[in-house]
Amino acid sequence: MQRVLRTAVVVVVLLAVLVGLLWAFQRRLVYLPGGGPVPAAADGVPGARDVRLTTSDGLTLGAWFVPAATAGASTVLVAAGNGGHRGVRAPLARALSAAGLGVLLFDYRGYGGNPGSPSEEGLARDVRAARSWLLEQGGVAEERLLYYGESLGSAVVTALAVEHPPAGLVLRSPFTDLAAVGREHYPFLPVRALLRDRYPVVELIGRVQAPTTVVLGSADTIVPPAQSRQVAEAAARLHRLVEVAGAGHNDAVLLDGPELVAAVVELAGG
């Protein structure tokens, strides 16, 4: 009996230490920034230029801006996922630019050599700065501005869309909320109780009064396809649900594949 009790105590202590470490370092598991070096904009996307965004808390963030082909064409504000930097999204920007759309790629705080540390509140400030730059310095009209969010970025632009409705919203591989994804990967931990950052996509999407397209990969093992479908079902103005058969979360077809690009272009044309 004493041996069983000692074993139980050891297990409890180890679990407590693990939970404590996860609480302290959880953002290092959520945010996986690529530090760089980030190439010059024109080296990544023809016609792009390097610009600087200023956040409401005084940070300066790097970004690439590709103007639209014509004055009447739409521009896409791209909010990236939780890994890499804007150079990774250059193929998407090239594809959208080739279709005549303008594009803004930016890096969150702590990404791509930017100052600061990422958090839900911080990323909300960052995407607001990106939108403000497009309207005030990029010459983009509100009625021609689309938001595109990739995975974690879907949560970032959904929150922005509640506050500042876009002309259209594209969510690629959205999750219902961050805790729901965490439970998939850490089912033995009280993820919802531990998380500091929430990103409640499914709770907010019903308040977005903009046509919304959801794109998902049917073989996604990072964000379960069922969660992306839930987001689509909860959308107040679902425009289309696009399922890319056999596509995983990080497959190239979900970065700049034809079905994805066509979905963005089609919403912009609407």
Task: Describe this entry's structure for a reader.
Helices cover 42% and strands 19% of the residues. The model has no long low-confidence stretch (mean pLDDT 91). It is of the alpha/beta class and 270 residues long. The strands form two sheets. Strands 2-3-6-4-7-8-9-10 form an eight-stranded mixed sheet, with helices on both faces. A two-stranded parallel sheet has the order 1-5. It is built from eleven helices and ten strands. Strand 2 and strand 3 form a beta hairpin.
In terms of topology, how is this protein built?
Blueprint (H helix, E strand, L loop, with lengths): L1 H29 L1 E2 L7 H4 L4 E6 L5 E7 L8 E5 L3 E2 L5 H9 L3 E5 L13 H17 L8 E6 L1 H12 L4 E5 L5 H8 L5 H4 L6 H4 L7 E6 L7 H10 L3 E7 L8 H4 L1 H12 L1
Parallel strand pairs: 1-5, 4-6, 4-7, 7-8, 8-9, 9-10
Antiparallel strand pairs: 2-3, 3-6
Helix pairs in contact: 4-5
Structural class call reads alpha/beta
Q: What is the N-to-C order of secondary-structure elements (H for helix, E for strand)?
A: HEHEEEEHEHEHEHHHEHEHH
Biggest β-sheet strands, sense, barrel:
8 strands, mixed
Number of helices: 11
Strand-residue proportion: 15-25%
Radius of gyration (CA) equals 20 Å
**Arithmetic mean of pLDDT:** 91
Total beta strands: 10
Helicity level = 40-55%
Contiguous uncertain segments of 5+ residues: none
Strand order of the largest sheet: 2-3-6-4-7-8-9-10
Distance between the termini: 71 Å
User: Which geometry do the CA atoms define?
Assistant: globular
